[in-house]
Amino acid sequence: MITLSSDFGSPYPAAMKGVLLSETDARLVDVSHEFPRQDVRAAAFWLREVLPYFPPAVHLVVVDPGVGTDRAALAVSAGDAWLVGPDNGVLLPAARALADDGGLTLFEVVVDDPDSSTFHGRDVFAPAAGRLHESGADPLREAGLLRPADGHVDLELPTATVRDGGADGEVLVVDDFGNAITNVPGTVLDGASEVSVDGADPIPAARTFAAVDSGDPLATVGSHGNVELDVNRGRGDEWFDLAPGDAVSLEVR
Amino acid sequence: MITLSSDFGSPYPAAMKGVLLSETDARLVDVSHEFPRQDVRAAAFWLREVLPYFPPAVHLVVVDPGVGTDRAALAVSAGDAWLVGPDNGVLLPAARALADDGGLTLFEVVVDDPDSSTFHGRDVFAPAAGRLHESGADPLREAGLLRPADGHVDLELPTATVRDGGADGEVLVVDDFGNAITNVPGTVLDGASEVSVDGADPIPAARTFAAVDSGDPLATVGSHGNVELDVNRGRGDEWFDLAPGDAVSLEVR
Amino acid sequence: MITLSSDFGSPYPAAMKGVLLSETDARLVDVSHEFPRQDVRAAAFWLREVLPYFPPAVHLVVVDPGVGTDRAALAVSAGDAWLVGPDNGVLLPAARALADDGGLTLFEVVVDDPDSSTFHGRDVFAPAAGRLHESGADPLREAGLLRPADGHVDLELPTATVRDGGADGEVLVVDDFGNAITNVPGTVLDGASEVSVDGADPIPAARTFAAVDSGDPLATVGSHGNVELDVNRGRGDEWFDLAPGDAVSLEVR
Fold first, then answer.
1. DSSP states of B177-202 as a string?
2. Nearest Cβ partner of A65 from C175, C176, C210?
3. What chain C residue is nearest to B46 in terms of C-alpha separation?
């Protein structure tokens, strides 16, 4: 199984699929091609949340603002999974989640004059992912297509500061429903009935959207385990005027 | 085969696919993840129109404004197909279409403390659909994971009133082309050359978009068999100023 | 393998998949369902760029402003591949690319009173593509479902005029990143460091987006081999005020 993730929209992912299917009969599964454009951190968050639900797979990831520069191409062994993508940190949070308590092994994909300097998804990463799926790493190392990585770019998603009666964190991403997903752990809402966001009038802390009227705001714990600031049948990002990267300070009671 | 339908956009459907593929090697086919957000009626319409074209399958459907509340989870046996989703009526119009003249058998999916209260697509419906595909219903009943449903929420799409020289109905959905799809049966246009919508100047009743100039309006019979109000190479919803739920009165001649 | 391409958005492609899967167990791969609406030329460009990356397949293509009129339905044999779609030229540039130096053989799909006059993707092209995949052309010819095409609509993508120190061409498409993809061959940028677009102040000619600051314009050679007018982490179409079909005159130095 090979999963595909990118910020490409359409139809560039199809070229990657054509390349993959020229190398392998593997099942292909799209994770998303609608990640926010060139937003390495948002992609890293979503991949960390979604990839652990998959059975063992090669995960091809292309969110790559540095395409064509000398940033390396990586293949990361993490538990039963492989991740293949640019060396800009996007793979690392998901790799750590997939490795569970195990370690990571990082390889550099040896890139030999790709056809384009703007579409390494097609010309570098998809061929590498296809070959890795077909043969595993050892033949690729022997063929000089992979070598141990000599350092890499890391990325840690920011963590919130939990304190008595609240937390200080930030918005990591806004999902397609408009839910503003923070980095504040959901446990901060344990036992709480109300939350004040950035000093404003308190809103309900609720387990379900339907606990508040249509159009009303709430704080809840999303499926990722973090606090979300939402509106039932509406957009939390607009109601709270929050965008990815904005700081949020929560007081609960 | 398992089909997936939701209003999730991206990337939440991928988590459902990961869960499904941890249970089954079934083929997965996306019907849509772009149904209008939390619009149970629109999803019910599209599912009724599209699912009958599939061979026997388990159809996983998650348009679920009541997620996390005590609304039940259903598995509906309809002809050769199963439908799995929330008990809010969204499954019923498609189930009746799939059952053809046969009856429906409704089961409740027994939900045992899911991981989240906001993403039952991942934590309740996908596991149930995967297991149903793998084993059929009987082992799940014996294991206490399914039980006969004790009532359910129904949903009937509204029907138009056909009368001499026209019909009174409403717009059910607007498709991605901007076509305003009504609930008026296409037979109302039989032999007609013109249609007046809500008393306005008549527009052509035509069999094809290309029968009128680019940018001009027309009434036609869509692929679902209902009257659509369209614009050739344009958006009918904007030209006619119509949205889902709006009443439409048609006079034909 | 059957690929699907259309301008349908969602959920109409699912009905085509249901029909295909009632005929065949082939792998289905979406190329795009987000081609610009009813823009035959844009679809022809993308298909020409993307389809050659696929292994042998039946390529189902539905961008069809003339649906329901007497425009024919075509099945085109091109190298190892087949293309199935409307006779409006959309198939031809890709077919020529797939045939490489070989010729094309064009058949007309015999259409016998389809269920709808607005959705031949479901009622004409998908059944034809499914049958072609299952049996090849000969049984379909014997059954009277295919016959040699008696002429067809051609479409040539416009070519740029390359001259000393520049080229005169046009924008073919704008991709989802906002890159304005022209028909000027990338070789025009060989050795150039700057490009003036339509007489404006020169911008850098660069191999990678990251060669300019975030928000700054550049001219580069896209993955299709043509000159693109782009903005690093921004939209080239907006910066240059260019849309598909607009003429562009480039001076390089």
1. T--EEEEEEGGGGTT-SEEEETTSS-
2. C210
3. C11
Tens-place pLDDT, residues B188-202: 999 999 999 999 999
> How close does chain A come to B232, measured CA to CA in Å?
25
**What is the SS3 assignment for B164?**
coil
- A32-51 residues touching C, CB cutoff 8 A: 37-38
Q: Please report the pLDDT score of residue A101 as a whole number.
A: 81
A26: nearest CA in chain C? C27
Task: Please indicate, yes or no, whether residues A173 and A77 belong to a single structural domain of this protein.
Answer: no
B55 & B21 share domain:
yes
> Which parts of chain C are beta strand (E)?
2-6, 28-32, 58-62, 73-78, 81-86, 104-109, 146-148, 161-163, 166-174, 180-185, 194-197, 203-204, 217-221, 226-231, 247-252
d(CA C109, CA B231): 28
pLDDT greater than 90 at residue C6: yes
Please indicate, yes or no, whether residues A61 and A83 belong to a single structural domain of this protein.
yes
Lookup: tokens for A5: 């993730």
pLDDT at C204 over 90: yes
The rounded average pLDDT for each run of 10 residues, N- to C-terminus, in chain A (253 residues) is 97 98 97 96 98 98 93 97 98 96 94 87 97 97 96 96 97 96 97 97 95 96 96 96 98 96
B176: nearest CB among C8, C69, C117: C8
Check whether residue B120 and residue B173 sit in a common domain.
no
Residue C156 inside a domain? The answer is no
> Are A223 and B17 a contacting pair at CB < 8 A?
no
CA–CA separation, C178 and A66 (whole Å): 17
Q: B117 pLDDT exceeds 90? A: no
> Given an 8 Å threshold on Cβ–Cβ distance, is C68 in contact with B209?
yes
Length of chain B: 253
**Which ipTM did the prediction report?**
0.96
Percent of chain B topping pLDDT 90: 94
Residues spanned by the domain of C165: 161-252
State whether residue B3 is helix, strand or coil. strand
Distance (Å, whole) CA A117 – CA C49: 16
The verdict on B25 touching C (C-beta cutoff 8 Å) is no
Q: How far is A151 from chain B (nearest CA, A)?
A: 30
Q: Determine contact: B157 vs chain C, CB below 8 A.
A: no
pLDDT in tens, B85-114: 999 999 999 999 999 888 999 999 998 888
Q: Give me the percent of chain C exceeding a pLDDT of 70.
A: 100
Mean pLDDT over B138-155 rounds to: 96
| B154: closest CA of chain C, how far (Å) | 23
Instruction: Name which of C50, C51, C208 is nearest A68 (Cβ-Cβ).
Output: C208
pLDDT at C35: 97
Interchain CB distance below 8 Å, A118 and C49: no
In a domain, A115, yes or no: yes
Distance from CA of A23 to the nearest CA of C (A): 9
pLDDT at B116 over 90: no
State whether residue A66 sits within 8 Å of chain C by CB: yes
Pairing assessment for the beta strands C73-78 and C104-109 based on DSSP bridges: antiparallel
